[in-house]
Write a structure and sequence with these properties.
By secondary structure, this protein is mostly beta strands. Helices cover about 5% and strands about 60% of the residues. It has 2 helices and 20 strands. The strands form 2 sheets. The chain has a 14-stranded antiparallel beta barrel with strand order 2-5-6-7-8-9-10-12-13-15-16-18-19-20. A two-stranded antiparallel ribbon has the order 14-17. The longest helix has 8 residues. The relative contact order is 0.20.
């Protein structure tokens, strides 16, 4: 039985919002494998990077992963994108569908002097948004009264980054960036009774806010014969969870290490493979014993090739594959994800503006269970490059 009043986020253990019974009801109630724990790791990739399975993250200037990618840019760039997700969760042959709307990336890049460029961006780091309705009953004055509970969680932790990249020479780039992690999780729950004349509805809500910082560095080195090696590292500082002005838990922003190898020795084509390791367990002290924080090792491979010309410039055709480990499970169960991706880069106004499109097919599983989740992630992004 679910009590009439249930207050969320009153302690670090509150992250297991709906884990009151067993794992399967928890995931089904949230309507997602990906949004367990602190939420789904959006990744912060541009539409171009997403179309290549994340393989371009280390050298795509519009993806705020490796600050060295900013080095040498000679024009101002303004970029924004939207990424709706259509999700389907299957539990014991029963399916539930949901749709999410995200604006996961906004960025401005402007060149300085001597091969230096500066970029300011805001990206979604973790997204935890869902709504669900459950039915049950409550014992009131010895009688069982039918009830309906509407639970809605709207939350995210965002990554605001200011970085600079420097092209030291045609063969080398380096970069450094500072990150601010901030956001909130707001949960509301309303219980209504079948007999609305005898019983009024009950509404409860709570909100947790987050604040943390991190520093990232990166580099790029041309090896010759079309090959380039890239690497980046993010060191997280303290991450706090607060209710009003009171710190209820402390952890660290997860440390991240990423490497990639790019090959562009064929005119009009770029190929890349990469991997990253993220220490999500460094966030564990914000959670509860029923929410598992697992370090993730992610692999990416992708390509971009020049297609037929459009308005005098080639269309850019992209494809990729990603194998990801999601950071949060329940009661020791680990979530994994495989993605097949494709994308298209369309010149809109010559070199002054471009439209990027991507589609990703994600399949997610939770170890030790029969739960399966599939999703379509659609991306649309616009780049504007005004003449300096």
């Amino acid at each position: 039985m679910i009590r009439t009043r249930l207050r969320f986020f009153v302690a670090p253990a509150s992250w297991a919002l709906l884990a009151a019974l067993v794992v399967s009801p928890t995931v089904q109630a949230q309507g997602s494998i990906g949004t367990q724990g602190f939420g789904y790791p959006v990744g912060g990739g541009s539409v171009r990077t997403n179309g290549t399975g994340g393989a371009f993250a280390e050298f795509d200037a519009l993806t705020p992963t490796n600050p060295a990618a900013l080095g040498g840019l000679g024009r101002t760039v303004i970029a924004a994108q939207a990424e709706p997700e259509l999700r389907k969760l299957t539990v014991n042959g029963v399916s539930e569908k949901s749709t999410l709307q995200r604006i996961p990336l906004i960025m401005v890049i402007f060149p300085a002097r001597h091969g230096v460029a500066v970029g300011i961006s805001a990206t979604s780091f973790l997204d935890r948004t869902f709504a669900t309705t459950t039915t049950g009953s409550a014992q009131i004055d010895g009688k069982s009264v039918p009830t309906s509970d509407q639970t809605e969680v709207r939350g995210a932790i965002n990554d605001v980054r200011a970085g600079a990249g420097w092209q030291i020479s045609p063969r080398f780039r380096v970069g450094v960036a500072g990150h601010l992690y901030t956001g909130e999780n707001k949960a509301t729950r309303e219980r209504t009774f079948a007999d609305t004349l005898a019983f009024g509805s009950v509404l409860d809500s709570s909100r947790v806010t987050y604040f943390g910082t991190a520093l990232s560095v990166g580099g790029e080195a041309t090896l010759g014969k079309g090959f380039t090696a890239l690497a980046s590292y993010r060191r997280g500082n303290e991450l706090n969870a607060r209710i009003r002005d009171t710190i209820i838990a402390k952890a660290s922003v997860p440390t991240r290490t990423g490497v990639a190898l790019r090959y562009d020795g064929i005119v009009g084509s770029v190929f890349a493979v990469g991997m990253e390791q993220i220490a999500w367990s460094e966030m564990a002290s914000l959670g509860s014993s029923s929410t598992t924080s697992t370090d993730a090792m992610n692999w990416h491979a992708g390509a971009e090739v020049a297609g037929p010309k459009f308005r005098g410039l080639p269309l850019l055709v992209r494809a990729g594959y990603a194998r990801n480990e999601l950071p949060f499970g329940v009661l020791g169960q680990i979530a994994k994800e495989n993605r097949m991706t494709a994308g298209l880069g369309v010149p809109v106004a010559g070199e002054d503006a471009a439209l990027d499109l991507s589609v990703q097919r994600a399949n997610r599983t939770l170890s030790g269970s029969g739960l399966k989740e599939s999703a379509w992630l659609l991306g649309i992004g616009i780049q504007i490059r005004p003449r300096n």
